[in-house]
C-alpha cells in the first residue's frame, strides 16, 4: 500500500505498470471530481465524467418506483446476475477504451465515488490488471459538504446516517487495501490541496507515470463535461479554500458527534486525531 500523509510515512515502494486501468473512488464529497480532472489533464490518461454503470446495474438508489422495469433488472431474467455483469460490464470496459482512443490517450481511468463499494465487481471485469486510488477526506469537512450539497437519492438526510455512510464507503476501501495492498493508493484530500505538486508527483510515480505541471492547473486543459461536482469546473486549479469549512457549516453538536465516532478511522488513515478545537 502506498499512502500520502503528512504524519505517516509509506512503508513500501510499489511500482505499477504504466498501462493498466485506474479506478478512482471514495466517499461522496471527498474530492473524487478533483482527482478525476487532475488525472484527465495528464497527456497519457483519459478520465472522463462519471458513468453510473454499477449504480444502475444494482439500482443503488434510495427510491425508484420503477425499479422492476429497469434494463439490468429485467436482464437478470435472461441470465444469472454474474453472467449479465460479464456481458454488460464488457461493454462498459469497451466504452472506456474507445473514449481513451478517441482522445489519443494511452490509458483510461474511471471515477465514481461508489467505485469503492464495487471493487469485487471491478475484479470480476478486469482481473488483477487495475489499480485503485482511494480518495479520503477529513470526515468533518466531508459531512459538512454533504449537509451543504444535499443529494437526496444518494446521501441520507440524518447526521448519524451520514456518519455511517461515510464510514461504510471508507471502510470498503480499507478492506481492498488488506486484500490487494500492492494495487491500493490512498490519496488524502487534505494533503493533496495543501501540497499539490508533491502529492500529485507521488501519485503519478506510483502509477508509473511522470508528473506534468498542468495537472496542478488542471482546468487550463479542456475536459469532457458530464456528471461530476460542478464546483470543480469553476476553479483555476488545486486550492485549499475548502479545508476546515466545517467550522461554518456544522453545529457544535454535529461536529462533536462526528469527531467522537470518526476519530478512530481518521487516526488510522492520517495518523492525526480528529479534533474540533
Task: Explain what you see.
This protein is α/β, with parallel strands linked by helices and 277 residues long. The protein has one domain: P-loop containing nucleotide triphosphate hydrolases (Rossmann fold, 3-Layer(aba) Sandwich). 44% of the residues lie in helices and 9% in strands. It has eleven helices and six strands. It has helices at 32-40, 53-57, 71-75, 81-102, 119-126, 139-149, 159-179, 189-194, 196-206, 246-249, 252-270, and strands spanning 2-3, 22-25, 45-47, 107-111, 131-136, 184-188. It has a six-stranded parallel sheet with strand order 1-6-5-2-4-3, sandwiched between helices. Helix 7 (159-179) packs parallel to helix 11. The longest helix has 22 residues, at 81-102. The radius of gyration is 18 Å and the shape is globular. The model is unreliable at 1-16 (pLDDT under 50).
Please outline what is shown here:
With 277 residues, the protein is an alpha/beta fold.
Present the secondary structure layout:
Layout: E1 2-3, E2 22-25, H1 32-40, E3 45-47, H2 53-57, H3 71-75, H4 81-102, E4 107-111, H5 119-126, E5 131-136, H6 139-149, H7 159-179, E6 184-188, H8 189-194, H9 196-206, H10 246-249, H11 252-270
Parallel strand pairs: 1-6, 2-4, 2-5, 3-4, 5-6
Q: Could you state the order of secondary-structure elements as H and E?
A: EEHEHHHEHEHHEHHHH
Q: What is the CATH H-level superfamily?
A: P-loop containing nucleotide triphosphate hydrolases
CATH classification class? Alpha Beta
Kindly name the structural category. alpha/beta
Average pLDDT over all residues: 90
Number of helices: 11
Q: Percent of residues in beta strands?
A: 5-15%
- Rough shape? globular
Query: What is the radius of gyration computed over CA atoms, rounded to a whole number of angstroms?
Result: 18 Å
Helix share, percent: 40-55%
Q: Record the strand order, biggest sheet.
A: 1-6-5-2-4-3
Supply the CATH architecture.
Answer: 3-Layer(aba) Sandwich
Count of β-strands: 6
Uncertain segments are 1-16
Q: How many domains is the backbone divided into? A: 1
Give the end-to-end Cα distance, rounded to a whole number of Å.
32 Å
CATH T-level topology: Rossmann fold
Amino acid at each position: 500500500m502506498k499512502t500520502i500523509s503528512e504524519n505517516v510515512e509509506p512503508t513500501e515502494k510499489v511500482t505499477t505498470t504504466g498501462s493498466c486501468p485506474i479506478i478512482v473512488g471514495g466517499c461522496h464529497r471527498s474530492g473524487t471530481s478533483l482527482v478525476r480532472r487532475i488525472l484527465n489533464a495528464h497527456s497519457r490518461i483519459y478520465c472522463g465524467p462519471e458513468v453510473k454503470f454499477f449504480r444502475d446495474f444494482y439500482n443503488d438508489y434510495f427510491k425508484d418506483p420503477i425499479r422492476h422495469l429497469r434494463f439490468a433488472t429485467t436482464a437478470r431474467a435472461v441470465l444469472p446476475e454474474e453472467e449479465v455483469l460479464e456481458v454488460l460490464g464488457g461493454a462498459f470496459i469497451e466504452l472506456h477504451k474507445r473514449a481513451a482512443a478517441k482522445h489519443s490517450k494511452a490509458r483510461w481511468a474511471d471515477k465514481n465515488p461508489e467505485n469503492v463499494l464495487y471493487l469485487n465487481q471491478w475484479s470480476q471485469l478486469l482481473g488483477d490488471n487495475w489499480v485503485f486510488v482511494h480518495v479520503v477526506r477529513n470526515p468533518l469537512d466531508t459531512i459538512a459538504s454533504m449537509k451543504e450539497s444535499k443529494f437526496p437519492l444518494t446521501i441520507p438526510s440524518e447526521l448519524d446516517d451520514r456518519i455511517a455512510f461515510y464510514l461504510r464507503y471508507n471502510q470498503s476501501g480499507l478492506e481492498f487495501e488488506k486484500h490487494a495492498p500492492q494495487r491500493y493508493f490512498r490519496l488524502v484530500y487534505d494533503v493533496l490541496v495543501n501540497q499539490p505538486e508533491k502529492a500529485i508527483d507521488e501519485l503519478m510515480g506510483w502509477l508509473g507515470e511522470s508528473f506534468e505541471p498542468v495537472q496542478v492547473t488542471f482546468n487550463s486543459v479542456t475536459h469532457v463535461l458530464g456528471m461530476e461536482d460542478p464546483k470543480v469546473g469553476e476553479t483555476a486549479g488545486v486550492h485549499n479554500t475548502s479545508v476546515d469549512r466545517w467550522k461554518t457549516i456544522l453545529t457544535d453538536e454535529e461536529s462533536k458527534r462526528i469527531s467522537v465516532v470518526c476519530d478512530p478511522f481518521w487516526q488510522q488513515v492520517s495518523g492525526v486525531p480528529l479534533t474540533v478545537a
